[in-house]
Write a structure and sequence with these properties.
Layout: E1 3-4, E2 7-8, H1 11-27, H2 37-54, E3 57-64, E4 70-71, H3 72-81, E5 85-86, E6 92-95, E7 101-107, E8 122-123, E9 125-131, H4 138-156, E10 158-161, H5 170-189, H6 197-202
């Protein structure tokens, strides 16, 4: 594991690992011939740089309009009706048949969602988020997320907005979809298929 979202493996971490490999080999009366540490560190640095360039989470915000806040109870009902489940991270998750997260629904405010707080929660915005490297067929999943966002906006009486709270237009939505396809094509070219076990290890 040369890279994850914390960065590339350090020289010290790699040294401890290689020392452990040699020690284990000696205990088994064997010989370990690991790759050169300098080459591993250089590879880790290059891999980390690439991963950072494609590590993108894209969101769609749903903002309350007319000063009317979204009631937590209604929000929960809509999320559950959409097949989403509340997880320990304080967000609702839409999952595939293998229980992998496709996208999440979270609060735009500081308070996380939980079963108790949703009974009294009132929020002025929520966001649907897609973790691009960790989702297979990202453009299709994004289409599904956009459809869900529109349903939430209709059910809550909200509007779709970008990070600057400007209305989210069809052209902007299409541009985001294209960016997802571009990123996942770049990943595939590096033999890191989006949503694969390899991708989930690198982007965790």
């Amino acid at each position: 594991q040369l890279v994850d979202r914390r960065g590339a493996v350090t020289e010290g971490e790699l040294s401890v690992f290689l020392d452990g490999v040699h020690h284990l080999a000696a205990q088994l009366a064997g010989v370990a011939t690991p790759p050169d540490a300098g080459e591993l560190l250089a590879h880790a640095s290059a891999l980390d740089e690439f991963c950072a360039s494609v590590d993108v989470q894209l969101g769609i915000n749903i903002a309350a309009s007319g000063g009317e806040a979204f009631a937590g109870t209604k929000l929960r009902g809509l999320a559950e009706a959409a097949g989403m489940t509340l997880a320990d991270d304080g967000r609702f998750h839409a999952r595939d048949d293998d229980a992998n997260t496709l996208y999440t629904l979270g609060n735009l405010g500081v308070e996380l969602f939980d079963t108790d707080s949703l009974r009294s929660l009132a929020t002025h915005g929520v966001t649907l988020t897609l973790d691009v490297p960790n989702v297979a067929q990202g453009a299709r999943v994004y289409d599904r997320m956009v459809a869900a966002a529109r349903q939430f906006a209709q059910g809550l009486g909200g509007v779709l907005v970008d990070a600057q709270h400007a209305p989210l237009t069809d052209a902007m939505i299409a541009g985001i979809r294209g960016k997802i396809e571009e990123i996942q094509t770049q990943m595939a070219a590096r033999q890191i298929a989006a949503g694969s076990i390899r991708a989930r290890r690198l982007f965790s």
